[in-house]
Amino acid sequence: MNKARSYTWRKVKENIVSEIKTYFLKNNWTEEDIKNSNELWRIKLKGIHLIFYKSRTLFILYSERASSEFIEVWKLINNKLGGRYSLPNRDILIGYDETGKGEVLGSIILAGVMFPKEIFNDLDLSIDNADTKCSHSFEYWERVAKGIMDFQSRGFSFVVEKILPSDIDNKNTNKVMDERYKKILFKLTRDIPLDKCRMVIDDYRVGRSLLNFVEDLRERGTEVIITTKSEDNFLETKIASIIAKWERMKELKDIGISFGTGNVGDKNTIRWLEDWYGTYGYWPWFVKKSFQTAKDIEKSFMDGGKRI
User: Fold this and answer.
1) How far apart are CA 199 and CA 113, in angstroms?
2) Helix ranges, the chain (H)
3) For residue 266, what pLDDT is reported?
4) Exposure letters 41-73 (e unless 16+ CB within 10 A, then b)
5) Are 16 and 9 in contact (CB under 8 A)?
6) What structural domains and CATH numbers belong to the chain?
């Protein structure tokens, strides 16, 4: 099957994009009619379509048959725009991210990844436009993650920690995460030259325990960056986010959850929780009983009613 693939650059400068468009049109690309009011222009060449949006997003769509041609186009655009992630400035890149913290169903999954700078571009291309903030099927995340796993022979490695709902009952979630991240940090960094590493941690309100550990790494030469929304700017946390998402989707599949998001704001999740508790009168292991949502449902049945 000739699958469609895509790649996106965001918040790009219009004058540079205009130069790119002019260059391509002079080299046998042709104009296309725009498809909706959000687009400024479209151009194409064989199996490749380049679209520029009013949001200053440059989007490229291409078929797998046109992969080699896409690489040449990508190189030219990337050289002009400077890439969509912070370029590697150290030999080894390490990233940490998690998922499931805000979901009432399932564990919190923490992931740490490490890879050499030599595979930075290839890893970037392999994940296409995977967005962990969007809902996708298990099969989708498995396909993306397995593409990443192919780089294990080229130095990619990862560590995952699972925080079960029972692990955070009556405990401070962030403190539990601090301790688990320290385990991941130790496993990934114990046999590498720390002064050659850039380490990025997505900031979930990192606590003093982990900060002290990180400060020791800084003193030993590691560049450490702790920031929010890190996966928008750093490939290493983007990859960690994808691995965490994949592991969470595997858990939900094993449990048999195939609806909604597991988030407290998702109506399908709330309906499932109400139905379960109304039927059995207790919570299964994968429900975070410490969440107010679960407590409210318990109370509603104790009062003889059912929450709508």
Assistant:
1) 10
2) 14-25, 67-81, 120-126, 138-149, 173-189, 208-219, 235-255, 267-280, 292-302
3) 85
4) ebbbbebbbbbbbeeebbbbbbbeebeeebeeb
5) no
6) 4-81 (3.30.310.10), 92-255 (3.30.420.10), 267-302 (no CATH)
Q: Which two tokens stand for residue 4?
A: 């469609």
* Entry pTM: 0.91
Strands of the 197-202 sheet, one edge to the other: 157-163, 108-116, 92-99, 197-202, 223-227
> Looking at this protein, which amino acid is placed at residue 300?
S
Angle (deg, nearest 10), helices 267-280 and 292-302 = 40
Q: Is the pLDDT of residue 141 over 80?
A: yes
In the block, residue with structure tokens 């909706």: 36
Q: Which residues contact 128 (CB under 8 A, 6 or more apart)?
A: 5, 6, 7, 144
| DSSP conformational letter for 228 | T
